[in-house]
Amino acid sequence: xxxxxxxxxxxxxxxxxxxxxxxxxxxxxxxxxxxxxxxxxxxxxxxxxxxxxxxxxxxxxxxxxxxxxxxxxxxxxxxxxxxxxxxxxxxxxxxxxxxxxxxxxxxxxxxxxxxxxxxxxxxxxxxxxxxxxxxxxxx
Length: 139
Fold this sequence. Notes:
This protein is an alpha+beta fold and 139 residues long.
């Protein structure tokens, strides 16, 4: 109000592009891995499958055990009695179970591979989410 319509308003202020702090994608991915419960659950399932595969593999190894016992026979507090002892070693080895042990081991290894692939797919999807968000933030 008070200025004529044809008056020069002056030079506009210089515009600078906005700069946002951009966190590296690897840091974002590491943070996402730590915070996502579905990723943590899948990691736990992978560890469980690896433990199961190790247990199935141990079925092929012989088991050796030892035991011992000692016993004192004192019929009264004043007279000495006898003593008895027993010691032994046991060996347990599953030589052949009709291929069942081998089949269980193969199935356990397949579960480990399946969990690893699921984990890789989830990591790839998380990296894609971060990449898309980063591109949207920059544009």
